[in-house]
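SUBJECT: A protein chain and its fold
Encoding: whole-number codes for local backbone shapes
Chain under study, with its fold:
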Amino acid sequence: MLNLNRKQAILAGVLLLVFAAVKVAALLWWQSRQPENTPVRESACNVHTGCKLPNGAEVKFSSRVAANEPFDIILRNVPPQTAEVFVSFSMRDMDMGFNRYKLLRQADGSWAALQIRLPVCVQNRHDYLADIHIGGEVFQVGFTAE
């Protein structure tokens, strides 16, 4: 009987080590997929009516952006050599977790992300920051959701 318990303990230990190794591998993979630390350029911009970013791109969110409803983001005049555009949301002094939405190039040359949602704030705040990644540049735009 003692021999069986020892085998079970060894098996449990091996399984825990395998689980830890898988978890570390997943964490390293996830970290490698994160964008590089690029300088953020803040922009005074009203994303509800549309505005121009410092690189000339124009950004516009749906006219109504609520924390619990899907909305659209459209970017126009993005430099033609741009390979990737995505947006993520945060708040000042608050981490909102991983939330990154890829914008897709449209037939008319614009970039769009449709039916996306804001991360929910547990403090019921509505003052969001949108980090708009265009190629290697990041533009940060503040806005208020309903």
DSSP finds one helix and nine strands in the chain. The two ends are 65 Å apart (CA to CA).
